[in-house]
Every structure is written in structure tokens, then in C-alpha cells.
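Suppose you are handed only two things: the residues of a chain and a line of SMILES describing zinc ion. What would the bound structure be? This form records exactly that question and the answer produced for it, so the two can be stored side by side and reused later without any lookup.

QUESTION INPUTS
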Amino acid sequence: MLSDSDSAAADFWDGMRELAAAATRHQDEELFGALHKIGRAVTSGGLPIPTGGQFVPCPVCRAVTGQPCINTPGHPLNDDFHPERVELGEKVMAELAPIP
Ligand SMILES: [Zn+2]
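ANSWER OUTPUT
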């Protein structure tokens, strides 16, 4: 069973995913900027990010936090995200580092 803080973290990232989906739907740069600030603030406090790379910026296509990856020649997408981005997300999570 999840502890209260695990379940609060899961709710937090669920909310972040909903915001990211809305930002994507409306192509809302300000909302993406806010997602990045919120993500960086909570990860600076030691909250781990979920796996998958959605909450780190992409080093390949420069998609920002929360934004889906953009098809880039020579860099095939693995599901919705570049493998390099997923790797960066795993590194951030393993080191409990803030979102770059
Ligand atoms: Zn990308």
C-alpha cells in the first residue's frame, strides 16, 4: 500500500500530466513555462520525477517540460519521446537532481 506521501506525489504528477495535456492542446507556451518552474521547484526539494522523460526538457528536439517530442530527422521517436530524453529523465531521477 502507498504511504500518504507516495499517494500525494502520484496525485501531484497526475495533475502535472493533465496540465501538460491542456498546454499541448492549446499550444500554450506560458503553461509549459509554468510546468517547468513547478517541476524544477519540487524536484529541487527532492521529489522524484516519474519515468518516461515527459518532465525533463528534450536534449534532441528542444521540447520543453511537459511538451511532447517533435519529429526530428535522424532521431527516431520511441513512443512519444526521444530515447535521449528518457535517459536524461532516468539520470535526474537516479541522482534526485532538479529538472535541468
Ligand atoms: Zn525530443
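WHAT STANDS OUT: The radius of gyration is 13 Å. The chain has one domain: 4-95.
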